[in-house]
Q: What sequence folds into this?
DNA sequence: TCAGAATGCGAGCGACGACTCGTGTTTGTC
DNA sequence: GACAAACACGAGTCGTCGCTCGCATTCTGA
């Protein structure tokens, strides 16, 4: 009597199949990003990928599984892309630079993967998709908490959590503006987002890091940042 | 030859009909708020209102028209509720209080009309609904611009517009957090939102208002209603 | 070489939702 | 009371969408 495995055994995929899966996920990313999850039809995804509806269901049991798999791959990409960006909290670097660096990385990732924002922000996520959504959100919240807690040693945990939620919400709001604009406007919005986060957090951090920030404190108010646009990669 | 009116003439409504319309709009508000616009079915709205699907279509040509009418009534409500809250920019009151008052009013309205946020924020708005959506958004943006422009006389118009967009985005983000929480948490988030907006705007307003407040600014500005800020404001 | 698995197709099924239509009831007006 | 218009009903139509099924084609391993 063989082992009766009720779960689906992972059917052996050929190289062709893996290619199709990548193709389908890319198509799904495109369709999701342009029309949202709920409005995206599986037929449209299959058409975008250049295959038949039946072929799509050879690799995914249902529409939700496509979004789940896509979300997981995006999370993996994000971890490898800048997983270490949030982890180390260097108390030596001034807050303004830390915020700017974090924002730059996040924005960069989301500009290259616009689906991510759609899946994170879309309210039209049924069933198990919502769990994935929440899990992802909570992961990010926890990260921000870990980043903030050394800077806010005096606050109760609930306050730190709340501040983390506010930071996430502010970031998502700014990201929406950034993704909706282009060119110089986009860079300007990025700068505004940095300003918002920095000015929000700076008074909370208090006098702890005040001395380290003394270098660039005076330039914060009067700077007009519309001219220099060469945002080269900072080493 | 009689006047061939291709457009639908407004059929004479009885009192019963007006009551039904209000009933249906209330039901639609409930269903939209709980499930979103796209996921809401007209049958569910009719059921919520306690009427048949056919009755619903006696008063609205289609699903979109329900949302349109609902949005227009909400806008009217908002205008009467605190239409004057944004209009007068009293330069004597400190920025912090002005921001707090505006936030309190907006939050209050949205807590009593949760549909408003759904219709404003939902990405699932097809066809003509999007126009209405944009129109409403632009109206609010313009209001914020008019509020800000006297405070930012030195900035170019594009910068003021951008700042207004940022303020709106920040407000919407904060509102989402507020609506998702309850009790003390909700009040705490309201306070955070006020802090965010104030800290963002305060450095922008800069030393201009600081002087004006010390001098107890001349009330000459308060009388003009829609003066399109002639950028050469003589200090 | 060849059995069997993986891949691919696309017409079609079942469910659901926006909307209609024929019919009956209530209301305003003469 | 009579007539028309407004109101109300709910079973039914039509289109869409997620998903299936039978069958053809390609690949793998022995």
A:
């Amino acid at each position: 009597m063989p082992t009766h495995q009720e779960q689906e055994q992972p059917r052996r995929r050929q190289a062709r199949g893996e290619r199709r899966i990548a193709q389908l996920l890319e198509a799904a990313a495109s369709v999701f990003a342009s029309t949202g999850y709920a409005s995206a039809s599986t037929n449209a995804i299959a058409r975008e990928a250049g295959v038949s509806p039946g072929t799509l269901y050879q690799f995914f049991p249902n529409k939700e599984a496509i979004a789940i798999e896509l979300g997981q791959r995006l999370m993996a990409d994000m971890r490898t892309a800048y997983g270490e960006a949030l982890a180390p909290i260097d108390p030596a670097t001034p807050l303004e630079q830390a915020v700017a660096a974090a924002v730059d990385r996040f924005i960069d990732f989301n500009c290259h993967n616009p689906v991510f924002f759609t899946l994170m922000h879309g309210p039209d996520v049924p069933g198990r998709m919502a769990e994935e959504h929440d899990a992802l959100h909570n992961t990010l919240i926890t990260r921000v908490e870990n980043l903030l807690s050394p800077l806010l040693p005096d606050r109760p945990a609930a306050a730190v959590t709340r501040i983390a939620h506010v930071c996430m919400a502010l970031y998502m709001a700014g990201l929406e503006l950034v993704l909706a604009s282009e060119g110089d406007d986009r860079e300007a919005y990025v700068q505004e987002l940095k300003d918002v986060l920095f000015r929000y957090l700076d008074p909370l951090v208090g006098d702890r890091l005040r001395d380290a920030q003394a270098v660039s404190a005076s330039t914060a108010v009067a700077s007009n940042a519309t001219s220099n646009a060469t945002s080269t990669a900072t080493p």
